[in-house]
Amino acid sequence: MARDADYGAFTEKFVLKPSSSAQELPLSGLTFAVKDIFDMDGHVTGFGHPDWARTHSAATSTAPAVLAVLRGGAICVGKTVMDEMAYCINGENKHYGTPTNPCAPDRVPGGSSSGSAVAVGAKLVDFSLGTDTGGSVRVPASYCSILGFRPSYNAISTAGVIPLAQSFDTVGWFARDPLILKRVGCVLLGQPDIPPVQPSEIIIAEDCFRLSSIPNDRLSEVLVKSVKKLFGGESNYLYHSVAVQAQRQNLEFRHYKASNALKAHYIFLKWTE
């Protein structure tokens, strides 16, 4: 298929159907794509780099996260482009080309799970799997105007996923439809489909809104009204400033992330010098 037709989202295309065709499975009838960081039996995990793909053998097993959605009834249609070795947030890849952002073709799609986000945003699949270490699901979801979810660390097994920074790597997923996002989440997290819970407290990081060109009070007003519409007015709203603390934690995170990545891939990086 021509690049324009698939927005450059895929590195490899195939059709992998679930082992069971039972119609009552939670993800029956849905299609999905997988970031090329997940092992899939019989396929080389490319990790966004042709040298990595060339020097590694095909996987002999499939990552548990991929198996979970396959067993849930979904059909896999391919593996997607990602930033080189997952170490970027822009979604660009000079080896395979940068996937085209379907909602803003002249802008980057965000990364490192760029192809997975683009495949969903371009309506090529119903949902997709990605990973998030420092924003690699959340950023491309926002850039491509879709939904992306990063659960808590270690909530989903990262076995069969090439590590970037093992202390932070997390499996996440994308969808356009919030109901599909929820269905996929129930399968991946092993949770029953339960009604939403009424929050007792809602924390609003009021200083974050000052970064916008829109007046802070207007943004806060719109947010609170929207939350009250969703959850009712019984929740306790707490306003906090988080910027100073977040800046310190971000600096610490970047050091730990780089250290983890170096430990994981030092031999390969040394070889490619």
Automatic annotation (TrEMBL):
Protein name: Uncharacterized protein MANES_09G165600
Amidase domain: residues covered: 21-177
Cross-referenced Gene3D superfamilies: Amidase signature (AS) domain
One Gene Ontology molecular-function label: hydrolase activity, acting on carbon-nitrogen (but not peptide) bonds, in linear amides
Family matches, as InterPro entries: Amidase_CS, Amidase_dom, AS_sf
One Pfam family from the record: Amidase
Family: Belongs to the amidase family.
